[in-house]
Amino acid sequence: MVSLTIIGFVRHGVTAWNKEGRAQGSSDVPLDEEGIQMAEQVADRLAAEQWDIIYTSHLIRAKKTAEIIAAKMPGVGLVEDARLRETGGGLVEGTTEAERIEKWGEDWKLQDMGFETHESIVSRGLESLDEIKKKHAGERVLVVSHGSFIKRMLNELVTDTMYEQSLDNTSLTIVQLSDEHNICQLFNCTAHLQKTVEN
Questions:
Q1: Is 12 marked active-site?
Q2: H or E segment and range at residue 98
Q3: What is the pLDDT of residue 199?
C-alpha cells in the first residue's frame, strides 16, 4: 500500500500592510491584532484535526501564526524553514500600487524591479517540500507560509488545474502527495473565520 503524505498549507494571518495593499515580499511585517485573532481561529480548527508536525516560514507573520497553532497542539513539533518564505519583491516591497505608478509609471511591471525569479522560488520551495515528503511519509504536515508562495507551490504540485485565485489570510489548502498523482483536496477554505467566537 502506498503511503500518502498530506500537506496542509496555511496562509498567515492578516497584517497592516495587507490592509493597506502594500507588497510584503521578504519584508518582516508582523501580524496586527486582527491577524492574531484570525490565527487563533484557524488554530482552534486545526487543533480539532489530526496533524503530526508544523513547518513554517521564518518571517514573523507566518512564524507567529504557526506558534499560535502549535500552542493549541501539545506534542506537535514546530520546524522553521527559510525556504518557505514569501517571494522576494525587490524594489516594490513596502509600496502600494498607486505609489508604484507614481514612482515608476504605469508600466512598472515591465521594468526590472529585482523580483526573485520564478525558478528560484520553485527550486527552494519544491526542495523543502520534497524533504518534508520523504521525512514525513504517510503523515499529515502543516506548512504555514505566504499567499504567493503557496499558490506557486500548488501550481507545481497539482498540474491538472491552474490555481489563479489569491489565497485568503489563514486559509487552509490541503494537498495529498503521492509518487504518481498529487490531488488538491481543499482549496482556500476559511470556514473557521465564519464562525462567531463564543465568549
A1: yes
A2: helix 97-104
A3: 36
Nearest residue to 30 (alpha-carbon basis) of 41, 9, 14, 44:
14
Catalytic residue among 12, 136, 146, 192: 12
Residue 143 phi, psi dihedral angles, 5° rounding: -125, 110
Annotated active-site residue in 58, 80, 86, 181: 86
Q: Give every CB contact of residue 156 below 8 A, 6+ residues apart in sequence.
A: 122, 125, 126
SS (H, E, C) 1-16: CCCCEEEEEEECCCEH
Is 97 an annotated catalytic residue? no
Condensed to tens digits (0 to 9), the pLDDT of residues 139-196 reads 999 999 999 999 999 999 999 999 999 999 999 999 999 988 999 999 999 999 996 5
CA dihedral 120, 126, 130, 131 (to 10 degrees): 40
Q: How many CA atoms lie within 13 A of 160 on its CB side?
A: 7
Tens of pLDDT, residues 129-139? 999 999 999 99
Alpha-carbon distances of 116 from 2, 71, 125, 141, 190, rounded to whole Å: 36, 33, 13, 26, 29
Please state, in angstroms and rounded to a whole number, the distance separating the CA atoms of residues 90 and 12: 21
